[in-house]
Amino acid sequence: MVEQSTGQVVRRTRTPLRRAAEPPDPPWLGAPVPECRCPDCRPTRRVCTTCGGTGRVYDAALLTLTDLRHRVVHLAWWAGTPEAVTAAGGGAGGRLVVRLPERYRLAAWAAVFGVRPEDLAEADGGHDISPDVREGYVTLPWAGADPVAEQVAAVGPALPAARLLVTAVRPDAPPLAELLRLALGLDLALVVNLVDLRNHPAGLLRAHGVLWSVELRPPAAPVHPDDLPCRPSPEAAVAHCLEGLDATLPETVPADPDAPVPVPRSGPRPLPADPVPALLRLAAGHPDQPLTVRFTRGGCTIHRHADEGPVLLAEGDDLPDRRLT
């Protein structure tokens, strides 16, 4: 019975429909991913690092690699899968470090998409993929531990539906030489921080290649002790610098209202030589030592980060192409 606005009551009859048989699952639907309650969650902990605060721990990691155009690769890593691993040395505390087969190395899939391993990044946020996950290195907490389970845990503790989306795309950034030309034209300092970890003495888990960071600063700004690189390639560092350029440039304006603001040079400037090869040779001559190279109109300075702070190694008109002591 349904009441009407006229004060009348109308009777309506509804015939419910029931499905005689449930349709089969679609062919693309995979098997459910087992999960269990997180064993490390405690009421006293604000956020549990094991599960990321979700209270769930998955027994698998589902990975999707894509170039965001037409190529997609799906991977499934299941804990408990027996795999033949190779010993890769010792880790912290004397624990064994092993390397999983190629199907567990995202770096091997990078070649399928025509990119470098360091170009792989999380689709959500653009965060870099851990070098250990890229190369398939796993530290076993005890002898006989499941290496695949440790790899699944390393991929991420709080993945939605246990899935990680990975983009295989080169950073869309101009060459470092173009950013250098921009900095010199605006009378700013181009600060390049880098460290060569390709042959780290602490072991394979620290051999993360060459890390970079790029910033634009006032020409008189000092080198800070916390100027440490974190990007896996110069292209990624330049892209990150350009993303925050709208916030960086206002910081280069002098705080003193009476101080003159540098006027950009008029007219086209020739593109300077690519500094990346010389920077790589410089970093290779100082392995495992963070370096800061500042380019300004007045020349170039090189600092090495030591325990007591940045130490000036050299200064001159251009980047020296030799090892500095």
How many strands in all?
16
How many individual helices?
7
Distance between the termini: 93 Å
Query: Rounded to an integer, what's the Rg over CA atoms?
Result: 27 Å
Helix content: 10-25%
Instruction: Characterize the biggest β-sheet.
Output: 5 strands, antiparallel
Output the helix-strand order: EEEEEEEEHEHEHEHEEHHHEEE
The outline comes out as extended
The total number of structural domains is 2
Q: What topology, given as strand order, has the largest sheet?
A: 13-12-14-15-16
SS class: alpha+beta
- % residues in beta strands: 25-35%
Poorly predicted regions: none
The pLDDT mean sits at 84
Helix-strand layout with pairing:
Elements: E1 2-3, E2 9-10, E3 35-37, E4 56-58, E5 60-66, E6 72-78, E7 86-90, E8 96-99, H1 106-110, E9 120-122, H2 131-135, E10 137-139, H3 147-155, E11 163-168, H4 176-185, E12 189-196, E13 210-217, H5 234-243, H6 245-251, H7 276-284, E14 291-296, E15 299-306, E16 309-316
Parallel strand pairs: 5-11
Antiparallel strand pairs: 1-2, 3-4, 5-6, 7-8, 8-10, 9-11, 12-13, 12-14, 14-15, 15-16
Describe the structure.
The protein has 325 residues and is an alpha+beta fold. The chain folds into two domains: 35-168, no CATH class; 176-252 and 271-316, no CATH class. It is built from seven helices and 16 strands. A five-stranded antiparallel sheet has the order 13-12-14-15-16. Strands 6-5-11-9 form a four-stranded mixed sheet. It has a three-stranded antiparallel sheet with strand order 7-8-10. The chain is extended.
